[in-house]
Amino acid sequence: MTQTVRPATPEDIPRLVELLMLDAGARHAADPILWRMAADAPAQIEKALNFALTAEQQPFHQIWQVSQDQGRITGVIHAMLLPVPPIYAGALGEPGLILPDSFVLPDAPSGTVEGLLAAAEDALHAAGARIKLASHVTGEDWRRAFEAAGYDPLTLYLSRTDLGDQGMPAGVRFATQDDIPGIVARSAENRQVLFGIDPFWDIHPQADARFSAWMTRSLTLRDRDMMVLGSPDQLEGYVIAQPASRLHFPPGHDITGTGVIDDYFHHDLASPATLDHGTEGAGALLHAAEAALAGRGIGVAFVVCPARWTSKIALLDAAGYETAMVWSIKR
Predict the structure, then answer these.
(1) What's the pTM?
(2) pLDDT at residue 163, rounded to an integer
(3) Which CATH number does the domain housing residue 86 bear?
(4) How far is CA 247 from CA 42, 143, 269, in A?
(5) Which of 6, 25, 181, 285 is buried deepest, with most CB atoms within 10 A?
(6) What pairs with residue 233 in β-bridges?
(7) Which Gene3D superfamilies does the UniProt entry name for this protein (predicted)?
(8) Alpha helix stretches (DSSP H) within 6-62
(9) Quick check: 238 and 285 in contact, CB under 8 A?
(10) Does one domain contain both 111 and 28?
(11) With left for phi above 0 and alpha for psi between -120 and 50, is residue 71 left, alpha or beta?
């Protein structure tokens, strides 16, 4: 095989736009609502590539590599160093993440996916990543390559694309400053569950103070809704519905109609294995987040859930959510 893998250059951008449009089209075909194409998708992809390959000041370290066979670019892989959220210790530093906008042509030589993956891992290791993460949406070749390389599911991203407008459930209310201590307490329980599921979510010693400061600031942000169940002194749970970000959606997709539910916990979910206390409270918070998104004209919800939090997955399954993307880990 004459194929090689090398870093992408600005001269590759026209060809990369072609490949990444095919890549975005594959996701769109799998779910045309969640992965809606941007009206100006080629221009958005070109803009993102220009910035990644030419800008001196980058918000995070990106890696773009291409496979080349007899002078023809046959595939591309995109990776980055993922900043560690401030509530986690990150003792092993920033993990490396292989992003979903990685693509190989169907007629590329055998082993192209594996060659790109190995090159990306080498580049991430050289950049200091001691943990590797890989995201997967479509493409059996990529799924098999990740599994063969030792990646195991870490986080599921489940979606529902028919939110409608069901109204706010009784008992759920919008959070106020008085609720911050209760939200922080429930978040601490959430973090303990996460750490019990996987030590990847190692807790920062100052997590409570950092999360409290972020929640206080979040109350002032007008692009999201924070909702709670229970009185401030006996808060049962909380949920935050916010806009989708580019971390999960490549630039060829329109994310204006998609919301993300990440910060979400209730006593019902305290056992990661089973729903020992039923689902009434946790379900009410989930429906409240959906109603808040629908009230903003958002019809798609994207919920972040650890792959081994089976009780939470069961709740989401029952509510009509399906796995749309998987992040896997290789240590």
Answers:
(1) 0.94
(2) 87
(3) 3.40.630.30
(4) 18, 20, 26
(5) 285
(6) none
(7) 3.40.630.30
(8) 13-30, 41-54
(9) yes
(10) yes
(11) left
Which tokens hold the place of 309?
A: 């939090």
23 & 77 share domain: yes
Helices H / strands E in the chain, number of each? 8, 13
- Establish if 223 belongs to a structural domain: yes
pLDDT of residue 166: 76
225-229 and 172-174 strand pairing: antiparallel
Encoded amino acid at 230, one letter: G
Same domain, 215 and 320: yes
Establish if 330 belongs to a structural domain: no
The residue count for the chain: 331
pLDDT per position in the chain (331 positions), as tens?
Answer: 578 999 999 999 999 999 999 999 999 999 999 999 999 999 999 999 999 999 989 899 999 999 999 999 999 999 999 999 999 999 999 999 999 999 999 999 999 999 999 999 999 999 999 999 999 998 889 999 999 999 999 999 999 999 877 789 999 999 999 999 999 999 999 999 999 999 999 999 999 999 999 999 999 999 999 999 999 999 999 999 999 999 899 999 999 999 999 999 999 999 999 998 899 999 999 999 999 999 999 999 999 999 999 999 999 999 999 999 999 999 8
Please state, in angstroms and rounded to a whole number, the distance separating the CA atoms of residues 219 and 199. Answer: 30
| Cβ–Cβ under 8 Å, residues 82 and 133 | yes
Number of separate domains in the chain: 2
CB < 8 Å & 24+ apart, contacts of 5-8: 5/65, 5/66, 5/67, 5/68, 5/115, 5/116, 5/119, 6/65, 6/66, 6/68, 7/63, 7/64, 7/65, 7/66, 7/123, 8/49, 8/53, 8/64, 8/65, 8/66, 8/76
Q: Report the 3 state secondary structure along 177-213.
A: HHHHHHHHHHHHHHHHHHHHHCHHHCECCCHHHHHHH
Cα–Cα distance for residue pair 23/250, rounded to 1 Å? 10
